[in-house]
Amino acid sequence: MATQLNPYLNFRGQAREAMTFYQSVLGGQLDVMTFADMGGMGVPESEAAQVMHSSLGVSDAVQLMGSDVPSQMEGDFVNGRISLSGDDRATLQRWFEGLAEGGTVNMPLEKAPWGDWFGDLTDRFGVSWLVNIAGTDGD
């Protein structure tokens, strides 16, 4: 197996909703395990149905993972930013528009000074996404 770098997102009770949303935008196969599936893992009964681990396999190059953080784990679990880039303009534009639904577009997807198309958004779950589409002559 080749080495991969997989973004892993954390949520407080919204992992299933978020990962299902990402599947609706990005496509792919979503696999979900709950805390209950794994014997409870010491979480309160009220959180047993929450996501212990999920994996959204979109392609060999795109895999997104996520889970709920149990209430007994204190702290601020910051997700950082996810960058999507490439030259498949139709796919990346569709993903940008889909991820923006219910979220905030911080910078519209438009021609950037460096010649590519670039946009920045925060989705409805508070996750930040950067999209860069490699520019071509005539864009």
From TrEMBL:
InterPro entries: Glyas_Bleomycin-R_OHBP_Dase, Glyas_Fos-R_dOase_dom, PhnB-like. Residues 7-129 form the Glyoxalase/fosfomycin resistance/dioxygenase domain. It holds the Pfam family Glyoxalase. This is PhnB protein. It comes from Nocardioides soli. The lineage of its organism: Bacteria, Bacillati, Actinomycetota, Actinomycetes, Propionibacteriales.
